[in-house]
Amino acid sequence: MKVLVANLGSTSYKYRLFQMDGTDEVMLAKGGYERVTDFGSVIEDSIAQLIQSGHLKSVEDLDAVGFKAVLGKDLSGCVVADERCLKALDDYREVAPAHNPAYANGIRQFSVKAPKATLVALFETAFYQWAGEAACRYAVPAAWHAIGIRRYGFHGASHKFIAERSAELAGRDDVADRVRQLYVSGPGAEPAKPFRVISCHLGGSSSITGIRSGVAIGNSLGFSPQSGVPHNNRVGDLDAMAVPYAMKTLGLSVAEVERQLGKEGGFLGLSGGVGNDIRDIKKAAAEGNAQAKLALEVFVHEIRRWAGSFYFQLGGAEAIVFTGGIGENNPDVRAAICANLGELGITLDPVRNEATRTEGRISADSSRTQVWVIPTNEELVVAREVKRLLENRKVTH
């Protein structure tokens, strides 16, 4: 089975082609385009390149296209990307303006460019379907809740990969199998022996998730990707009254508030304009820039706050995992997050931590909780779930 995974941004298109046969999972090709103004043209060009390189005989050789969709109104999980899916994306386009319009456009373009391929959307919210209602509710008026204002959680593909891979590394095949079947048959009964993981996806956007025996209990991101930990140029958690106060005091329109929150907040705002790339911020902090130093401190503080929250909710943790570009490549950030936690049974090995940029354990042998670096693979998760959906449809039809 050949599955193309499409990752679409407002002006970017990246893809990976997978051969998914039985237990064999092979990435055949990958590519991408930036500053895209015509998605139909670049999608057509990418398919032509795959044919020219011999990875596809023709467009009909493509069995499915998987989309790492973000947020749909009244729809989640791994679903066929049909008109119902498109409506769900369109209805929440204002909540996820950088993602939903792009994915809706991409799905429509692929339906024309690859008409025989099955189009499948794996929503980023899917991993949180089984979180308890208390973890999902805001204390908003009932009418607000009725129109869908609640905690959803995002980065689901990444955290699901971590849930499965951390269980494999810990020798918990029962939990890994549970994760594999989540979107096919639901979580089922919880294993008698729990396996508790705090997954820290730290990158251009960041989130923390608590995972009990392969099933998420919550995520630091809430109604939109603007919430949770401050990251890139996203603000993170913000008191609800801050927005109307800023509008009245600074004379801002709704559109300008949205622009400033999405373009001028996060690392960029915290660092006093240094930038939204942690590499630039770390360089400025090392040179004595106080605002850049503060940006790093706030980032670490908020990660510890959310990880600590899930530690309490889980009643402890067998593993803490760092993933994403920042989580995988910044041992100093990992050390700051795990500092002074020895009484909780969390102790890093400084040598292991400093040396690790790929998959590896970075905790001390004496640490009761294992701490790992595990590079994530969101595209592979999408390809796996597309394959499972198609195979399950064959069985049930």
Protein described:
- This protein is an alpha/beta fold and 397 residues long.
- Helix content is 42%, strand content 17%.
- A six-stranded mixed sheet has the order 3-2-1-4-6-5, sandwiched between helices.
- Strand 11 and strand 12 (370-373) form a beta hairpin.
- Helix 1 crosses helix 3 and helix 6 packs across helix 17.
- The protein is globular, with a radius of gyration of 21 Å.
- It starts with a strand and ends with a helix.
Concise summary:
This protein is α/β, with parallel strands linked by helices and 397 residues long. It has 17 helices and twelve strands.
Structural class: alpha/beta
- Give the overall silhouette: globular
- Count of DSSP-assigned helices: 17
Which percent band covers the strand fraction?
15-25%
- Sheet with the most strands: spatial strand order: 3-2-1-4-6-5
User: Which stretches of 5+ consecutive residues score pLDDT under 50?
Assistant: none
For the largest beta-sheet, the strand count, sense and barrel status come to: 6 strands, mixed
Q: What's the β-strand tally?
A: 12
Radius of gyration equals 21 Å
Average pLDDT metric:
95
Fraction of residues in helices? 40-55%
Order of helices and strands: EEEHEEHHEHHHHHEEEHHHHHEHHHEEH
